[in-house]
Amino acid sequence: GEDVEQSLFLSVREGDSSVINCTYTDSSSTYLYWYKQEPGAGLQLLTYIFSNMDMKQDQRLTVLLNKKDKHLSLRIADTQTGDSAIYFCAESSTGGYNKLIFGAGTRLAVHP
Amino acid sequence: DSGVTQTPKHLITATGQRVTLRCSPRSGDLSVYWYQQSLDQGLQFLIQYYNGEERAKGNILERFSAQQFPDLHSELNLSSLELGDSALYFCASSKQGSNQPQHFGDGTRLSIL
Lengths: 112, 113
Known about the structure:
The complex is a heterodimer of chains A (112) and B (113).
Chain A: E1 4-6, E2 9-13, E3 18-24, E4 31-37, E5 43-50, E6 55-58, E7 61-66, E8 71-76, E9 85-92, E10 100-102, E11 106-111
Parallel strand pairs in A: 2-11
Antiparallel strand pairs in A: 1-3, 3-8, 4-5, 4-9, 6-7, 7-8, 9-10, 9-11
Chain B: E1 5-7, E2 10-13, E3 19-24, E4 31-38, E5 42-50, E6 53-57, E7 64-68, E8 74-78, E9 87-94, E10 103-104, E11 108-112
Parallel strand pairs in B: 2-11
Antiparallel strand pairs in B: 1-3, 3-8, 4-5, 4-9, 5-6, 7-8, 9-10, 9-11
């Protein structure tokens, strides 16, 4: 079945890089996504990667995809206090539909 | 700002009642999705509409229903509310029915007393 797993918590120092990891089960997912949720706010689409890509870079964000291991990671360079939030990994379902299967979210805490 | 508008932001009601949550998709988006975020279940897909037609169903209870109108806005109706329905309900929209990134609204927080 479809399942997405993430570690629940990550603490980093301001200025360091953060790496948030995710594993998924559906090898036929077309797109994989990273969303950010700040307290009391909605889900902000951060970036996404097509399943035939290995890497995507967007300013401070780097997404790496290992299709063999079904492993997705999000690297945030020069992490700032404003990056403190919950980060959700999601895969799109197969079958011509577009429902997203979300992980439980990783809470990123950035400290001085 | 994602361009997806949800109203109301907060809703407080009692068990047994019925509420309607409203969503306006981004301009040009034809698909609307509803998700529920709760502490115990996380983010769960409820239902998808594409250009007025139901496209896919997820873990949506029979007490819940939705529709998408000709102007593409959508409503999620929740009836016979129970304490366990307390959650954050998100609407998302995308340009087409499949393989398009979804943009989320800020959600409606529903509290059942």
